[in-house]
Amino acid sequence: VVWTLAAACGSSALTLRSSGNSSSATLGARDGNAEHICPVELPTRTNDTFQEPYFEKLHGVLLHGNGVFEGCLNESAQEHYVEEFAEELQCLYAVMLADRCGGLQSKHSSRQEAWEKACLNPKADLLDAYDLMDQTEKLYFQRFKKQASERQIYATYLELAGYKELVCILMKTVDDECLAFA
Predict the structure, then answer these.
(1) What is the DSSP annotation of 91-137?
(2) Which residues are CB-neighbours of 117 under 8 A, at least 6 positions away?
(3) Are 36 and 153 in contact (CB under 8 A)?
(4) Quick one: which of 91, 78, 86 has its CA closest to 126?
(5) Residue 39 — left, alpha, or beta (φ > 0 → left; ψ -120 to 50 → alpha)?
(6) Cβ(36)–Cβ(88) under 8 Å?
(7) What is the pLDDT of residues 75-133, one digit of tens each?
């Protein structure tokens, strides 16, 4: 089976190959019978070796918080899904990087505190995070989410966990200049 995942905004399609049908790929990714294959490898650019550690730290903060906020509610299903689907979230992050975040502009100086309150507070929901994005970012996210949802593994994650963490990963990555700072 060949799956296509395009990041949006006119980027070229990325091909993803998986053996078996989509339901076996989804189940297999959870039970070890099939592996998740990402069309984009980190680093996305030569010598950008900080991309993978950046994701690991960002994922860790979303899960466990920053000392002020706890991240995902401890012992919750949400925490389990975000932790269990780390590889798939990292793949979507890699696709964003390969697309250079659709050319979106950083809002770090105006959004950092609000991002922490919306993305690291388990009492905040998707709309608290989503409403921090401007219209261009929302359009990019909607296209990105639609393309990701065409692959069963991402559709399953989004159905179980929702979109909040993916929105937060997108915003933080954009606000850190799509990691172009190094």
Answers:
(1) HHHHHHHHTGGGGPPP-HHHHHHHHHHHHS-TTS-HHHHHTTS-HHH
(2) 69, 124, 128
(3) yes
(4) 78
(5) alpha
(6) yes
(7) 999 999 999 999 999 999 999 999 999 999 999 999 999 999 999 999 999 999 999 99
